[in-house]
C-alpha cells in the first residue's frame, strides 16, 4: 500500500440513494523527525516522499544553510514499528565542517511559525537581516497573461491530488516559462520547503528570475521562505495575510494573490508585472 496515497474503507452516502461501502484514496500523513548533527531539531507532519528536499528546504528557510556545500550528508535512521518494518520517519542531517548548527531557538521558532505565532515589526526585521539573498534588485518582468497560465500548469502536474483531492502544492517556474519543480504535501509549508530543498540540492539558489506558485493562501511564513531562497515573486491562488504583504513590501518581493483565470491582485512589487507597472 502506498504511504503517499493510502486507501481506507469508507461508506459513501447520497441523499435519496443507497449507502455503499467502497475503498477511498487518502493523502498520506506521517511524522518526520529531523536531527542535525545527532540532535533532534524538529518534528513535522508531512506526506512521505521527497523527504530529503523537505529537510534541505527547512534548513534554508530557517537560515541554517544557503548552499548545497554546507550540507554534507542526509540519511534515514533505523526506525522500526512493532512489526520491525523501517518507517523512514527519522532523518539525520550532517552539516559541513565550519557550518554552525542551529541553536535551540531555531527549534522553538519552528514550532512558533507552525502555529502562526510570529508577528510584528521585529519578525520582519529578523527575516530581512537573516536572508543571504537580496530579492529587491531582481530584474524579472512578466506579463499578466503569462501568470494566468501558471495555476493550470500546476494543477496538471499534481499527480497525487488527482487521487486524493487533499494535498497542497508548490511549484517553481522560471520567468521564461520553464517549470522547474512541483512538490505536494498535506502541509503547504512543507510543499514549499520541498521545492526550495530541491533547488538547493540542484545548486539553483538563489532563485533569481523565478516564480514560486502555491495552491492556497500566501501567509507570512511562505513569503519568508521565498525570501530566504532568493525568489523574486510569490503567487497564490488565494488571499495573502496583512503581514505577508508587509514583509513582501519590506523585502522588495512581488506578491500576487487571487491568481485565478485572467484576474489577479498584485499586493507588492507591481513593477515586475508589466500591466501592473503601467498602473
Estimate the helix proportion, in percent.
25-40%
How would a textbook summarize the main sheet?
Answer: 6 strands, mixed
Strand order of the largest sheet: 8-7-9-10-11-12
Q: Give the structural class.
A: alpha/beta
General shape: flat
Tell me the β content.
25-35%
User: Which architecture of the domain at 144-278 does the CATH hierarchy give at level 2?
Assistant: 3-Layer(aba) Sandwich
CA-based gyration radius:
20 Å
What is the rounded distance between the termini? 53 Å
Low-confidence sequence ranges: 111-121
Overall CATH class of the domain at 144-278 = Alpha Beta
Order of helices and strands: EEEEHEEHHHHHEEHEHEHEEH
Number of strands: 12
CATH superfamily of the domain at 144-278, please? Cytidine Deaminase, domain 2
The helix count comes to 10
CATH topology of the domain at 144-278: Cytidine Deaminase, domain 2
Mean pLDDT: 83
Brief overview, please?
32% of the residues lie in helices and 27% in strands. The chain has 279 residues and is α/β, with parallel strands linked by helices.
Question: What topology emerges from the helices and strands here?
Answer:
Blueprint: E1 7-12, E2 20-25, E3 30-36, E4 39-46, H1 51-61, E5 71-76, E6 90-95, H2 104-114, H3 121-130, H4 144-148, H5 150-156, H6 159-164, E7 168-174, E8 179-185, H7 188-201, E9 210-214, H8 220-228, E10 233-236, H9 242-251, E11 254-260, E12 263-268, H10 274-278
Structure, explained:
The chain has ten helices and twelve strands. It has a domain at 144-278: 3-Layer(aba) Sandwich (Cytidine Deaminase, domain 2), CATH 3.40.140.10. A hairpin with a 4-residue loop joins strand 7 and strand 8. The longest helix is centred in the C-terminal third of the chain and has 14 residues, at 188-201. The chain has 279 residues and is α/β, with parallel strands linked by helices.
